[in-house]
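Blinded run. Sample ID left blank on purpose so nobody reads anything into the name before looking at the predicted structure. Input follows.
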Amino acid sequence: MKAILELFPKNRIFPDANSTLRVTYGKIKGYKPSDAVTYEPFSYLDGVMEKYIPGDYEYDVSKKLIDLYNNKDYGIYGVNGKMPLDFIATNHTTGGNSGSPALDAKGNLIGLNFDRVWEGTMSDIYYSPDICRNIMVDIRYVLFIIDKFAGAENIIKELKIIASDKKK
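Blinded prediction complete.
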């Protein structure tokens, strides 16, 4: 940052997490932002299929993914007949955190941060552990897409995959 400020002394430079090390911690946890609204900590591929609209820009799903879903062909990545998709946690994040790893207590990669819940978008100014949640793609879904959907076994062979405890 010092070099950027010296190189561009007249530029207006705003802070974010890009190209910086950010460390945060939290717990996988759902929340209840308002009366009669509750968000569970995990979501599944079922939710994608519930939203499926053929030809829609946001909600179209490829035939291959539909077939994998209908056949419950999740490989080692599924849990109790379901495919985990993403999860929310109490981690404090900021602009530029997309792609940041989520690690468990043993240092295993369990997800990748990509967003915040609507009620937590103000967390750069005010962090409330009651409603601020970051959203992470579950690494099991990433591996499922690489392995079963894309068929990229060469990538899977390069990884050390630790079996999940299958509780969630």
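Unblinding after everyone has recorded impressions. The CA atoms of residues 65 and 149 lie 7 Å apart.
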